[in-house]
Amino acid sequence: MRYDVLVVGSGPAGGTTAYTLAKEGAKVLILDIKRAPGVPVQCAEFVPVQLKHSFPEFFPPEVIAQDVKDMVHFTPWGEVVSMNSEGYVLHRDRFDRRIVELAVREGAELRLRTRFLGFEDGRVWLEHIDRRERYPVEAGLVVGADGPHSRTARLTGEHTRNFLTTAQFTLPLREKLSDLLIYFRDYIPGGYGWVFPKGELANVGVGIDPEYPINVMDSLRRFVSELVSEGLVESKIVGRTGGWIPAEGVKRPLRGKVILVGDAGGFCHPITGGGIANAVYTGSMAGESILEGSLEDYEEEAMEVFGSSLNRAAEKRIKYMKSWDNLRFIIPRTWIAFEEYWKEE
Ligand SMILES: Cc1cc2nc3c(=O)[nH]c(=O)nc-3n(C[C@H](O)[C@H](O)[C@H](O)COP(=O)(O)OP(=O)(O)OC[C@H]3O[C@@H](n4cnc5c(N)ncnc54)[C@H](O)[C@@H]3O)c2cc1C
What we know:
- By secondary structure, this protein is an alpha/beta fold.
- The chain has a domain at 2-40 and 91-161 and 248-319: FAD/NAD(P)-binding domain (3-Layer(bba) Sandwich), CATH 3.50.50.
- The protein has helices spanning 12-23, 49-54, 92-105, 151-156, 216-230, 276-292, 295-320, 327-334, 339-343, and strands at residues 2-8, 28-31, 46-48, 64-74, 80-90, 109-111, 114-120, 123-128, 133-144, 163-172, 180-183, 192-198, 201-208, 239-246, 254-255, 258-260.
- The strands form two sheets. Strands 1, 2, 6, 7, 8, 9, 15 and 16 form an eight-stranded mixed β-sheet that branches.
- It is globular, with a radius of gyration of 20 Å.
């Protein structure tokens, strides 16, 4: 079995890479340990409007749960700062599935319950998880789209070691919302709390720096009680999730015959945690560069478009967010909604 490209991971980064390549006739294998792409959802599900403009085919109506207009930030010192943030809260499972379906429709082969193990004898070793069967495949290139704890990154060089840890409940809203809400609180250290509306429901979560001595579930429960007592949400838990967010900035994505896209390459914002759009864009860029036979162009373009802003945010995280005792100083310097962010070098 020989493929032009093996794509490890069927999230938005891997799905987009496979789709971009298969559309032009490349022989692509995309694999995932999951039983179905996008399930379980580990996400607050917001994407900016620009992503739909760039990839309208990824956004059939059933993928969008609701439109949002602004992002409203609530500070512990009582200031409320609103910023335009037009976009969509998705049904993320449907979104991931849609991209993979497009890739398969274009001729990509999808193997689920299949784990990438590593490289040996110039071949790539995979494992069928249920059958516990290990076997090799040959591939001209391997695209590492295997998310925050990427094995492809780990086996080929520098990889992310610092993460934000998150926990999220889906809760009923008392009244529908048209904005994304962001809360900064002393009990959500090195991160923030979010309320992202999804029709009658909302994704309510916290992301914290795990180096602080607070349990992420305790932080989330405290956040939910605050929102319940404000009358924003009901306490009935409809869904639970969580996960890890790379918090270090971008790693060199080109490693010989292995190319990293999305969270695997650290293309996720180390402060806001936003990574879906970057995953899609890097997947598309990587696919185009592979088709043109110019892998260096991918590295150059990805670093130019994302490297400097994500690495700058990572530096700010280290500079300001490793202590959590003066939020009035830290928050305006680390969030783009505040003027101080832009003044600070
Ligand atoms: C709680 C939470 C909330 C978030 N909210 C938002 C948000 O609102 N907006 C936003 O833009 N971003 C958000 N993010 C970040 C966003 O989810 C990621 O940036 C995005 O999923 C990255 O896409 P990806 O394709 O790179 O990786 P993933 O979506 O993580 O996909 C990687 C895939 O690789 C598979 N895989 C891993 N290892 C292997 C292996 N060895 N073999 C085979 N398959 C493997 C995994 O099963 C997975 O399906 C959030 C993250 C979390 C945890």
